[in-house]
Amino acid sequence: MTLKRNLIANYLGQGWTALMGLAFVPLYIKYLGIEAYGVIGLFAVLQAWLGLLDMGMTPTLVREMAHFTGGSRSNESIRDLLRSTEIIAVGMAVLITGGITLSSNWIATSWLKANALPVEVVAQAFDIMGLVTALRFVEGVYRSAIVGLQRQVLLNVVNCTMATLRGLGAVWILIWISPSIEAFFLWQAMISITTLTVLNISTYASISKGTRGGSFSMEALHSTWRFAGGMVSITFFALLLTQIDKILLSKLLTLHEFGYYTLASTIAGTLYSLITPITETFYPKFCELHARDDRTALINNYHKGAQLVSVIAGSVALIVACFSETFLKLWTQDADLARSLTVLLSLLMVGNLLNSLMWIPYQMQLAHGLTRLSAYINLIAVIFIVPTIIWVTPNYGAIGAAYVWIILNVGYIFIGAQFIYQKVMVKEKYRWYKNDILAPLIIALLTISITKATVNPMENIITQVLTLAITLIVTMFASAMTADLIRHQVQTTAKTILKRLFLTYQR
Questions:
Q1: pLDDT digits (tens, 9 = 90+) for 317-352
Q2: CA-based nearest residue to 155, from 141, 170, 168, 171
């Protein structure tokens, strides 16, 4: 019941947060301009790269909090680990703020190619951006602790509230106060300060009181250093794989062109908002079951999580990829923009889907404490992707980079997975390929293809929305019925609901 409740809470929370992140993008572009939106895109890249400074702290905290929930850590030891992580994170945040402030002028003048935005404005935006990034860096400590404690309902209430304030407030600021990139980031800073305060209070309220409070402890940090150290290398290579295209394109393209790429990447990136609730729900459960040595339940939960990824992310990604122009027209109300981004969005969405299929195997590795394997796999991938991107991007632009991303993730699934299944879930590889991936995705693709071939394109907005919505529902249902564990869960839930309705009617 806890697993189901947390999964539902994560989906509601992530869904609302993603909606708040996407809904106002056309307004941001309207009031700030596409160049300023390109700067906002770089803010997201900056946040991702500075995650490397976390040194594996946040995934380690999730794992150790889950162990605490499972009874394998004391109250005092977990409080010491949390306080030690807090102190390190705050120190890192100070360095982040100072580093970005010192380099803001260089970024504005030597790296970016801005035309409409003055260099001074871009530099000031990066100054404020440094503070916001630092605050969100510290937020990650408390988010990880709450996830590890399996208090996803609490976390998602906070996330939804703050995402609403962040999005609606930013639009209000741009319309009524100042339509400037500086005002946008100042509002983000205010919300981040509020969020940090709320998360701090929520985290400590979720940990039962022990005999004493937490204190900085080298012993607490040393007990997790091996896992955290492995996470650093994994994080570094993962960041190279997912962000190198944006870094290169921000240099090679004008800020105006990069703004359009950022737009396509932002839409495709929302697919991860569908996957994150699954991993945030199942990873602590994997850790708990592994600590208890309950292999039967561990295998069952592993395949259930993998099938959920295929059914939900697969259905959404394939629909957006196949109906990308329709989706873009509905969202932006700009036919020219939709046509220019259609191919790029479809390719990025397919690449992200393939990448997401590896998330559950990755979480299982972490639950077993195996970080070295992922580091080696990612190292090989980096050796492939970096020179390839450097060669492809100047010659083929963003489209070429998107194709490289697809090829890389095909390699992950068919080559990298072979090494993973030699270490964990040894006898589950073919079941993963057949039941968890191929069956749900093939049915989803067939359903969408039939719909696309039989339904005539309509210009009416209501008809387009209904077509996409019905296609999504039918595709997701067909895919779910093909995945054995999801089908069983749906049937069990349906029987329970019908039984309750029958008993209510009898009364």
A1: 999 999 988 888 888 777 777 888 899 999 999 999
A2: 141
Q: Which residues of the chain have pLDDT under 70?
A: 1-4, 6-7, 48-58, 70-74, 113, 210-241, 456-459, 494, 496-507
* Alpha carbon distance 398, 344 (integer Å): 7
Mapped onto helix, strand or coil, the DSSP state of residue 294 is coil
DSSP 433-495: IIIIIIHHHHHHHHHHHHHHHHSPP---HHHHHHHHHHHHHHHHHHHHHHSHHHHHHHHHHHH
| Tokens 């981040």, residue located | 192
Contacts of 181 (CB under 8 A, 6+ apart): 32, 36, 39, 40, 117, 121, 122, 125
Q: Token pair of 104, please?
A: 């803001």
d(CA 309, CA 289): 20
pTM: 0.73
- Nearest CA to 436 out of 298, 303, 296, 272 is that of 303
Ranges of each domain in the chain: 1-239, 270-507
d(C-alpha 232, C-alpha 218), whole Å: 18
Instruction: State how far the Cα of 348 lies from the Cα of 321, in Å rounded to an integer.
Output: 9
Amino acid at 17: T
Tens digit of each residue's pLDDT (9 = 90 or more) over 103-150 = 888 877 877 767 777 888 888 888 888 888 888 888 888 888 888 787
Please name which of 191, 85, 174, 176 lies closest in space to residue 128, comparing C-alpha atoms.
191
